[in-house]
Design goal:
This protein has 368 residues and is α/β, with parallel strands linked by helices. The chain has 14 helices and 13 strands. It holds the Pfam family Gly_kinase.
Length: 368
């Protein structure tokens, strides 16, 4: 029996590689004859660079940048010198996991540090920059990133604005970067795990800002700010592009300020690691992520893995930390078995801190 393990990370708990290791240990207890292929995956958020580095190689470049609250930290990006290609994970500089729960506030956070990573890659001579977005602490639509790259944002009194989410509504004029000509010589691409538009009920603020610390009033203000920034777009289609609302609108910001293209991270990752080749060789495929909910079925990693697995008529099993929104599982997915860690009497704290032990137990009992 050939088993392909291809999970995403379990956020706040285990890396994708650690998930593979725990499941493999459990499976081997009851199926010692099984041939197990581990293929850790990512969806464009935290952990994506590790998957890329394991596949393509490259070296880590670490620099001092500003975190979402403008405090200096050290953050890396991946540099493939032979291809002059930089891979930048925005969560390394502007991610929500960099902040304590009480610090999270998308009105005052910024993607400035992400811009500093991009600037460093440009200084190395990058001709291609891939920006993976996900897990952000921000809702500034890339205003901070653009400021770090030389753009200036002025209010009605021609005073320069601090690049934070709350100031999007106050932008009256944008002064282009002096490096604009250089940006046009670089191929920028954004890899995202969501397909949301920039503003409105399905936009960045209304869908994601609450989990970043926003209340109802702040969400409305942030959304109005996104609408204001969109009024400056020379291409009105940007705001409605799938993925424009990713990372607090950074998807749209990268398209507008950098001329970036945008695509679905899960498809890109699966293509990069030659997933189809491994899937064809497997008898059964096991994937999963930390939390499976309604968003998981809408273009995120596991839905893409399922789609590819079904092409080859391979049975698939899902594992997860927690399973939510079961009543919203699409009819075509209801026949897929899901094994969550979080089930009575296991508590959330135990599920997070002892995930490896429980995944090993699940692996031992899987109906293979």
């Amino acid at each position: 029996m050939r088993i392909l393990l291809c999970p995403d990370k379990f956020k706040d708990s285990l890396t994708a590689a650690e998930v593979c290791h725990a499941l493999s240990k459990g499976i081997k207890k009851t199926h010692p004859e099984a041939e197990i292929q581990s293929l850790p995956l990512a969806d464009g958020g935290e952990g994506t660079l590790q998957v890329i580095q394991e596949t393509l190689g490259g070296q880590w470049v670490k620099i001092k940048v500003n975190n979402p609250l403008f405090k200096l930290i050290e953050a890396p990006f991946l540099w493939l010198e032979d291809k002059q290609h930089a891979f930048i994970e925005m969560s390394r500089a502007s991610g929500i996991e960099l902040l304590k729960k009480e610090e999270r506030n998308p009105a005052i956070t910024s993607t400035f540090g992400t811009g500093e990573l991009i600037r460093s890659a440009l200084e190395l001579g990058a001709k291609k920059i891939t920006l993976t977005v996900g897990g952000s602490a921000t809702n500034d639509a890339g205003m901070g990133m653009a400021t770090a790259l030389g753009f200036k944002f002025l209010d009605e009194e021609e005073k320069e604005l601090k690049p934070i989410g709350a100031n999007l509504i106050h932008i009256h004029r944008i002064i282009p970067s002096q490096f604009l000509a250089q940006f046009k010589q670089v191929q920028f691409q954004v890899s995202t795990d969501v397909r949301h538009v920039l503003y409105g009920p399905m936009g960045a603020a209304h869908v994601f800002a609450r989990q970043k610390g926003a209340n109802d009033a702040m969400i409305k203000d942030l959304d109005r700010g996104l609408v204001n920034l969109a009024s400056f777009f020379n291409d009105k289609k940007i705001a409605d592009a799938p993925g424009a609302g990713a990372a607090g609108g950074l998807g749209a910001g990268a398209m507008f300020f950098l001329g970036a293209s945008i695509h679905l991270a899960s498809e890109w990752i699966l293509d990069m690691v030659a997933f189809d080749q491994f899937a064809q060789q497997a008898d059964i495929i096991i994937s999963g992520e930390g939390k499976i909910d309604v968003q998981s079925w809408k273009g995120k990693l596991i839905s893409t893995v399922i789609e590819h697995s079904k092409r080859f008529e391979k049975p698939i099993i899902l594992v997860c930390g927690g399973l939510q929104d079961q009543e919203l599982i699409p009819p075509s997915m209801k026949d897929i078995p899901v094994f969550p860690i979080l089930a009575p009497p296991i508590t959330l704290e135990e599920a997070i801190h002892q995930a490896a032990k429980h995944l090993e137990r699940i692996g031992e009992k899987l109906p293979l």
